[in-house]
Amino acid sequence: MNFSFGLPDTHPIRQALAQLNGSQFYRCALQVNPFAYTKENGKANDYETEEEYNTAFVSALQEANIDVIAITDHWRARTGAGLQEAAKAAGITVFPGFEAATNLGHHVLCIFNPGTDLSRLDLLAGELRGITGPVPNGDNGDGVKTMDDLVHKVQTEWDGICIAAHVTLANGILWDGGERSSKPWKCDKLYAAAIPGGIADLLPGKLDIAQNGQADYHRKRLMALINAGDINGPEQVSKAGASSNIKLAELTVEGLRQAFLDPTPRIRLDSETAPDGHMEILGAAWEGGLLDGLRLHFNTNLNVLIGGRGTGKSSILETLRYAFDSPVAGLEARRNHDSLVKAMLRNGGKISVAVLRHTPAPVAYLIERAYPGPAQVRDENGDVLDVKPIDVLRQLPEIYGQHEIAELAKDPTHLTTLLKPFLPARAAATAIQKETLQKELGETRQRLLALENEIAVNDERLSRLPALNLRLAEYEKAGLPSKLDANTRWQREGTLFQIGRTRLKPVQEALEVLRGAYPLDHDGLTPAALAGLPNAELLAKIGESLQNVEAILQRTTTDLESVLTATRAQIDEVQRTWKPLRTAADEELQAQLRALQADKIDGSEYLQLAKDIDQLQHIEKQQTVQQAELEGLRQRRRNLLTEYQGLLGDEQRDLVRTASQVTSKLGNRVRVRVTHLTPRSELVKLVRDAMAANNQGGQKYNVILDALHNKADLSLVGLAEACRRSEITILRQDYGLTAGQAEQLAGIGGDACMRLEELDLPSSTDLELNVAEVGASESVWRPLAELSVGQRATAVLRLLLLDSAVPLMIDQPEDDLDNRFIADDIVPIIKDQKQKRQFLFATHNANVPVLGDADLIVGLAYEHDHIRIGTSGALETPPVHQLVEKVLEGGKEAFARRRAKYNF
To answer: Model's pTM, two decimal places?
Structure first.
């Protein structure tokens, strides 16, 4: 895939993606027969001329996405000249060669480097046939060499590569109808054999031989099995078993040899499907700072950064983490990250990273971040999106700096986060639902507290009502109400204006809701969106109905707004007309009050008393409404809490199940155990603050807090309920407290009790490592607390290497691990997982790239105040091979473990 992001070829990220990036899979058909072969051997085809045959053949190769072919006529290379030129002109790599036969009649494909002279190959074929000069047309007899001698000639003396042809079919070394001998199969230098289908499709006896299960046929190394069936014409190019996917660093005989020597990660048979696509970092480019001008095109599998101290390995990983805005697990790791990014990028320094996500469909994004600003995201067209990297990637790459794995091994809660990728799919939805419930619980708590406070204040005010009513009765006995009754009615009238305006508030709020409801969203229902759907005309009626609703909404809001405006104006007009009448009544009232004063009666006190009683009676009515709301809120909170506690229980059970599944995946090396409601620092802080607020005497609460911290089976809901109901006996029994301490705990208050119910204490994870030798009959398990730093890192790293679709980057994992563990335990996992996941390691240890069969190695150097790339490529590339030996610790020892593969 070629992504431009709408940018010119000169843009740094385009330059990065234009670079070579190590070994790649190529579709290879390694037993292609030319036109002359089909005519000589009576293979039916519809082509009159070689030119027609070659044109059709190349077209079929292109349609089948074949990248590489080997032309292997029987004993002849010259007959493939025309097909070779036609394929090369179409951009297909051609390995010339021929199909030979041993003295036992076993057929062998002899393949040579592209560009090898065909006349020379004809002479070599003649030597294997036992004649001087090229093998004549029509001569398809057996050769004169044993398998050992033939392979030695081709691979050692002539720089070619051999493949045992169609081994289970006629003239194959495992063919039941031919000359049977185990010796050809056991030839040490014969690395590959062609089979017609999948390995599992082999008959039991042949399968046992292929898997080294028969003593007579046992080989020092497993035979690489490939699909390279006879292709006798264009129509056979796509037949099953005709081609294989082979990972090659270079399209040479040496590239094929490397693949055959390490077949598991490098050969994919025709019947084997490619692993599901995984997120991959395509490339990165730096501008400014010490990394200015650096361009990297990453391999989709195993990438390794090497170089001496101070050559920028850590800088690359940490600036990549900065671009993604990925979290940093530990405090020390965060300090290192911040200081390194600042030093490397400096003000204005920029990093651009291209990322490809495969699910649900392949889509690429370009992430750019200049120091010290935020990250920006571009889509494939180059448009800048209003999102963060996490929004488009959904999961960020996992990146760990130097010693960070050892640091996070000390944090049980962070270890729990490492289980999240393995949780069931519903976990993400559960987390969102839990967050919503937490918000709703917080809102009900705040409203409950406010309402309870209002009710308490009103209760205090209403406590005056009996006394006020007694005083009012005294005035009524004096006949005052009848004398001042008119004023009471005037006062009541004065309240009606505000009541009228208050009654309009819900209507105004409803109007605002209606205003926000239109225009309606017609996305997906427009004529353009419906065009092409089989029932577009029928479905258009939905859009028409929505348009009708929209029109009615618009008319309704207009009419309602007009009515509200007119009603407010009417209330204002009535109040303006009423005010002069009230003024006249007040003058009459003052005359009455002066007359009462003459009789030594304080009428103004009575009026105030009547007003106060009237207000309290109004509050009394409000109190009934508030009590009903209070009960409704309490019921709603009980419902929310039940749902919330159910979600927390689901989360905890999912974590336990996931820990068990992960343990199973880790084999017998690491066990994962989850403990709920730990640590309890949030609980301790909440209770301490609540007790301190309610007890101003400066008392110490250590005994109470220790009891909460150490309680084995803790129920936050049960604790809250016991405190709310002041169940002193229960608190004493459950937490081992004295009566005084239990009373202190019970006095934390309603707010703290509700917060206890809402508390979401984390779960902590502990890992146990089997420290027994690999293959030992009995396991020896040790928890993290009893392990050395290296052993802790060992346990965590195995967890990090489990199945995942996101890239994993680790800076110098060997810092906290021993070589034996890296070589024997970690590297095999990396080698197995790299087809399903992208890895990027910065390392000084040769075991990672050499034993892990690195697909891309980048050698870094520091020169003239800048970091640059020295040598890069796949491990088998000679300059890279030499660099690994020279720079990495244990380079020669690592190569020695793979002596045959790397010719060390």
So the answer is: 0.79
